[in-house]
């Protein structure tokens, strides 16, 4: 099992999430819990699609850090 960085952002009335290491893998939700659930499903679906198409599965490489400014 791999661990991918997920970025969650406010998007107007809801939240959106994306995975930097998996271009095109996105999800939305009304709450953090909702968007976390949908992005997990989106990641699984995305990886299954890559495998079915015989494409390489990107290895996690993105990092996230908080920086005080």
Concise account of the structure shown:
This protein is an alpha+beta fold and 69 residues long.
Please tell me about this protein's structure.
By secondary structure, this protein is an alpha+beta fold. The chain is built from one helix and three strands, in the order E-E-E-H. Strands 1-2-3 form a three-stranded antiparallel β-sheet, covered by helices on one side. Strand 2 and strand 3 form a beta hairpin. The termini are far apart. The model has no long low-confidence stretch (mean pLDDT 96).
The largest pleated sheet is described as: 3 strands, antiparallel
Strand content: 15-25%
Would you identify the CATH architecture of the domain at 7-52?
Answer: 2-Layer Sandwich
N to C succession of SSEs: EEEH
Total helical segments:
1
Radius of gyration from the CA trace?
13 Å
Strands of the largest sheet, in order across it? Answer: 1-2-3
State the CATH class of the domain at 7-52: Alpha Beta
Content-based structural category? alpha+beta
Low-pLDDT segments: none
**Secondary structure tally: strands:** 3
CATH topology of the domain at 7-52: Double Stranded RNA Binding Domain
Give the overall average pLDDT: 96
N→C terminal distance: 34 Å
Q: What percentage of residues falls in helices of 4 or more residues? A: 25-40%
Shape: globular
Notable traits:
69 residues; 1 helix; Double Stranded RNA Binding Domain; three-stranded antiparallel sheet; alpha+beta
Record the SSE blueprint.
Elements: E1 7-11, E2 14-18, E3 26-29, H1 32-52
Antiparallel strand pairs: 1-2, 2-3
């Amino acid at each position: 099992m791999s661990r991918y960085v997920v970025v969650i952002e406010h998007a107007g009335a809801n939240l959106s999430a994306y995975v930097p290491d998996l271009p095109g893998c996105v999800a939305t939700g009304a709450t953090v819990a909702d968007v976390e659930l949908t992005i997990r499903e989106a990641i699984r679906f995305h990886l299954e699609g890559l495998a079915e198409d015989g494409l390489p599965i990107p290895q996690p490489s993105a990092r996230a850090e908080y920086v005080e400014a």
